[in-house]
Amino acid sequence: MIDLGLSKLAIIGVVALVVIGPEKLPKVARMAGTLYGRAQRYLHDVKAEVSREIELEELKNLHKEVQETAQSIKSGVEDSIAQNMSEVESALRVDDAAHSPPITATNEDLSRKAKEFRRKRLVRTSAVPLWYKQRNGGRSHVVSGAARVARFRPRSGKSASFY
Q1: 12 found inside a domain
Q2: Most distant CA pair in the chain, distance
Q3: Which stretch is the leader sequence (predicted)?
Q4: Does the predicted model carry a pTM greater than 0.85?
Q5: Are residues 115 and 91 in the same domain?
Q6: Nearest-angstrom CA–CA distance, 94 and 118
Q7: What distance in Å separates the CA atoms of residue 92 and residue 94, rounded to the nearest whole number?
Q8: Does residue 15 sit in the same domain as residue 89?
Q9: Distance CA 25, CA 96 (A)
Q10: Which one, of 3, 27, 25, lies nearest residue 14 by Cα?
């Protein structure tokens, strides 16, 4: 930068006092100070913007690298899964061909299975009629465990009420 000593500043001040005059010198000095401050702020803003742009570019490059790495990992995983699936499927084909002959269902088998299914569904969904329960000694209504214990507990002379 410019090397300004005390003697050089004094010479510049004397020349400015002679050229500008004592009345206008304070206004010119104030204006020079404000212009110098504006220039410093402008340079600071430009430096900050350049550093932001550089950081943004670095972040974009890092983001691109991360995406490429993630894509390569994803493709590697998909390839290994596809390879493992093909190995399992080929092993199943060999195992199925060696152990059991192909199964074919006939119409008689299908009709027998349909009848079984209908019969089981009827058993699941139908309720036992009340007259059948009464005749054969089945329960006609649900009784809690506490009520069953109270029914068969021997009764003493005292009442069981707490009140």
Answers
A1: yes
A2: 134
A3: none
A4: no
A5: no
A6: 37
A7: 5
A8: yes
A9: 105
A10: 25
